[in-house]
Amino acid sequence: MRPDSQSCGEALALDAPRAPAQTALMTLPRLDITGHALANTSRARMLCALMDGRAWTNKELAADAGITAQTASVHLRQLEAAGLIVQRRSGRCLYHRIAGPEVAGMLEHVAGLTPPDHLAQRQRSRAGALAPLRCCYNHLAGTIAVALCDALIAQGALRRNGEGMVARPSPLWRELGVVLPEAVGPVVAKPCLDWSERRDHLGGALGRAMLDHALSGGWMRPAGPRRGLRLTARGRAAVAVVIGPDAPELVDA
Question: 43, 71, 99 — which closes off a domain?
Fold first, then answer.
């Protein structure tokens, strides 16, 4: 056997065992793609702006992130390639929005994991006007949303079940404009970790119903940053019914 043929055979023998490992690597989740998309301040700011659940143009997102429209276009292409946002054209304008509730939930959860609990006060300071009350894609978030979730648990309308929650019949749901489905078995409620409070607020279908009722009933109005909300007089009265004695301090925050 020629030396070069032997070397080739040895090389093939050495390479052969690597094939299964390479195949397994290709089937692993590409967390690096998502991580790279999130690892930029400007892209993170644009994603936070999109967390209000609405669609925004390139120029609007660029202004919010404090960058040029040309730079924003590059960042938005990266976010779209990572599957975090989608585009929609309407007339002459191209709009961008979060790809869906799964992406929004992931972003809110990742935001909640950033600093440890003992830095929660600093996180509230960073949140600024968003801390008391805001939209978390399609449900309420912030200090008031967490207090509502706590009150629902304390008064038996919600019960923790492992990492999740179960909704139970209660007149409090009617106060919040939520109609529990008449189904056999428990109504599963979805907790969502609040990134400024580091505690759960109510997400999922029940959280969406609460936000829809609050907006249609004039309980709150937009305030400050795009996701920010402020309670109206009607909203303060409605929230006080559920939260109880601690309501005045919270709703005036």
Answer: 99
The span from the CA of 211 to the CA of 238, in Å, is 13
Q: Do 128 and 195 belong together in one domain?
A: yes
Q: Copy the structure tokens of residue 226.
A: 């795009």
Q: Which of 51, 49, 55 is nearest to 88 (CA)?
A: 55
Q: From first to last of its 253 residues, what are the pLDDT tens digits of the chain?
A: 444 544 444 444 444 455 555 555 557 788 888 888 988 888 988 998 888 788 889 998 998 888 888 889 999 999 999 999 999 888 888 999 999 888 988 888 787 776 544 444 555 555 555 668 888 888 999 889 999 999 999 899 999 888 889 999 899 998 888 888 776 567 888 898 887 777 889 998 899 999 999 999 999 988 865 678 888 989 988 888 888 755 645 555 4
Q: Is residue 109 part of a domain?
A: no
Domain C-terminal end among 47, 69, 99? 99
Domain co-membership, 39 together with 126: no
Sequence-separated (6 or more) residues with CB below 8 Å from residue 36: 78, 82
Q: Of 39, 54, 46, 103, which Cα lies nearest the Cα of 72? A: 46
Residue carrying the six token digits 């428990």: 186
pTM of the shown model: 0.58
Taking CA atoms, 124 is separated from 61, 132, 157, in Å, by: 23, 9, 28
Nearest to 155 by CA among 141, 142, 167: 167
